[in-house]
Write a structure and sequence with these properties.
six-stranded mixed sheet; four-stranded mixed sheet; 10 strands; about 50% strand
């Protein structure tokens, strides 16, 4: 049996803007969120057209639910295509795990961003 190990960026609470670099695309927050956030995926400008990158963000919530509500790639706003429709927000007293798959489709640069979010109770 083979397994894959990935290094996670373990940090405290989600901030107003999250800059997540392709070099460390797995982020785990250890404290409950205190505000909604913008996520900015960085380091994709140099990725060749036709390649993709996957990012995972683990967001714990207390009784007040916060969530990622704005999305950027290298500082430019992008539209996210959500599995099952756009999520309505975070879930209170749970942990939300976001998965983003970003495909570079043109050198301009242009990206397709596919995402899903699951709540763990």
């Amino acid at each position: 049996m083979n397994s894959t190990l990935e290094s996670a960026n373990i940090t405290t609470a989600m901030s107003a803007t999250l800059n997540i670099n392709i070099a460390q695309p797995y982020v785990v927050f250890t404290a409950n969120s205190s505000a909604n956030s913008t996520v900015n995926f960085t380091g994709l400008a140099g990725v060749p057209v036709g390649n993709s990158a996957t990012f995972i963000v683990v967001v714990p919530n207390s009784s007040t639910a916060y969530y990622i509500n704005t999305y950027q790639v290298d500082g430019a706003g992008v539209t996210v295509k959500w599995a099952g429709g756009v999520p309505i927000g975070g879930t209170s007293a749970n942990t939300d795990i976001y998965s983003f798959n970003i495909v570079k489709t043109a050198a301009t640069p242009t990206y397709n961003v596919f995402a899903s979010v699951q709540s763990y109770f």
